[in-house]
Write a structure and sequence with these properties.
Blueprint: E1 6-10, E2 31-32, E3 35-36, H1 37-47, E4 52-57, H2 62-67, H3 72-80, H4 84-94, E5 98-103, H5 110-115, H6 118-121, E6 126-129, E7 133-136, H7 141-152, E8 156-161, E9 171-177, E10 182-190, E11 201-209, H8 213-219, H9 230-239, E12 243-247, E13 251-254, H10 258-270, H11 276-289
Parallel strand pairs: 1-4, 1-6, 4-5, 8-12
Antiparallel strand pairs: 2-3, 6-11, 7-13, 8-11, 9-10, 10-12
């Protein structure tokens, strides 16, 4: 079984739920305290052994590329101030993995975005980290998927139970427990109507696929929302041999939503080495003031 060294991060979406800020700042560049959301995704992939990351971008997202590049002006200013640790940290971020960029010229859906990565992936297994989903966990979710892939030999998806009334926003899996935190998946449906849902297990932000997904995507017709849905292509895998779903350890934040953005910042700020203790005090005082 090949070692997984490649990852794809689709980040071409407009982020309409985060308007008006997303009109000029890509939602993937919105901060969690002092780092943009997409930095967490690349760091997770690198921690799981990925050496090459392809970020699928669109118009107006040049700031993502700039973030993963050295900045001579900043380094000169920091050197003058003797702030060498800051320089080292910025260079570490740029060197976590080889980060490449490809522009999706038309936003035709997640499945179409993944299809543009065909030449980059070639015949290797790879991770997909959804650009909207930041997951904070002890063990990288990509690593959790890789362990299930090694054990069961099937493509994997990271899942969580979602409230039944929200299943229509995600997808629904037909799945049977393997007796641990994994499931054998034999079918799935994207954005189901209530009577179509198999379960309240939904894919949230992480997938491990093999290169045969590209042949399937090339034949996949537009589905929910008139877009080429990755779920529709994965359904072919599920109904022809199955997939493995992993109920992953970690907390997922929807960075396409204002509440997800704010929640991720509050929870991360509490644990931040520089401001954590002071922020906790502020939260306690603020909470008392609004009772």
């Amino acid at each position: 079984m090949k070692k997984i060294t490649k990852a794809v991060i689709p980040a071409a979406g407009l982020g309409t739920r985060m308007l008006p800020i997303s009109k000029s700042v890509p939602k993937e560049m919105l901060p969690i305290v002092d780092r943009p959301a997409i930095s967490f995704l690349v760091e997770e992939a690198a921690a799981a052994g990925v050496t090459d990351v392809l970020i699928i971008t669109g118009r107006g997202k040049d700031t993502i590329e700039n973030y993963f590049d050295f900045n001579v002006e900043y380094e000169k200013k920091l050197t003058e101030s003797g702030k060498y640790a800051e320089i080292e940290e910025m260079r570490r971020i740029c060197s976590m993995a080889n980060v490449y960029f490809l522009r999706q010229k038309e936003t035709k859906g997640l499945g179409h975005a993944v299809l543009t990565a065909k030449n980059f992936i070639a015949d290797e297994p790879f991770y997909i980290l959804y650009g909207d989903d930041v997951i904070l966990s002890e063990t990288p979710v990509c690593t959790q998927l890789a362990k299930a892939y090694e054990k069961y030999g099937k493509p994997c998806c990271g899942v969580k139970p979602v409230p039944w009334e929200l299943v229509y926003k995600y997808c629904s899996l037909k799945a049977e427990s393997n007796g641990d935190n994994t499931y054998h998946v034999t079918d799935m449906i994207e954005k189901p109507k209530p009577e179509q849902a198999y379960s309240n297990l939904s894919i949230l932000g992480r997938v491990l696929l093999t290169s045969d997904i590209f042949d399937i995507l090339e034949k996949t017709e537009p589905g929910a929302g008139g877009e080429i849905q990755l779920t529709d292509a994965m359904r072919v895998l599920a109904t022809n041999g199955g997939m493995t779903a992993v109920d992953f350890e970690g907390e997922r934040f929807d960075f396409g939503s204002k509440l997800g953005f704010l929640t991720a910042n509050v929870k991360s700020a509490v644990n931040h080495p520089e401001i954590g203790e002071d922020f906790k005090k502020f939260l306690i005082e603020f909470a008392d003031s609004i009772k």
